[in-house]
Design goal:
- By secondary structure, the protein is of the alpha/beta class.
- It has helices at 3-25, 58-70, 141-144, and strands spanning 27-31, 78-82, 85-88, 107-111, 117-120, 129-130, 136-137, 153-155, 158-160.
- The termini are far apart.
- Residues 4-23 have low confidence and may be disordered.
Length: 171
Amino acid sequence: MHPALLTTSAILCCIICLSTICAADEVTLYVAANGDDAWSGSVVAPNAAGDDGPLATLAGARDAIQQMKAQGPLSDPVTVLIRGGQYFIEETIQFEPGDSGTEAAPITYAAYPGETPEFIGGRVITGLRKTADGRLVAELPEVAAGEWHFRQLFCDHQRLTRARHPNVDPD
């Protein structure tokens, strides 16, 4: 075999081996609206047995990475891919400095390719009923008791005007 061809072949083999080794070490976790934070997060969709699949929340992914770090410093990149769907966030998701990656082992949170996750920092109000004059009404005992406060109201992705007194429109 010609020496130049042999050298080229050896270089290509090294590149292929190194890229395979580097790619194999990256950790990918998945988050999905139909996930469960008790699962591993290493599977893109729930399995047929229903005992493993994606995680359900960003906090669950953060906690899974914290558990990995408890075993020792991360040596490889970690990517959290968030599937499309609606995620209702009931409390603030907190990331501390210890939740950061490093230059050698970055931690990335990203949308699953081709999908759009939607994070909703609110609650769904159920029990809405329409009055004779077309208003929507719901009883909210938590609001009446002063246990829940909200400033905005949406229906079908449209911001609504909350009931107020005096009933004046500043426009």
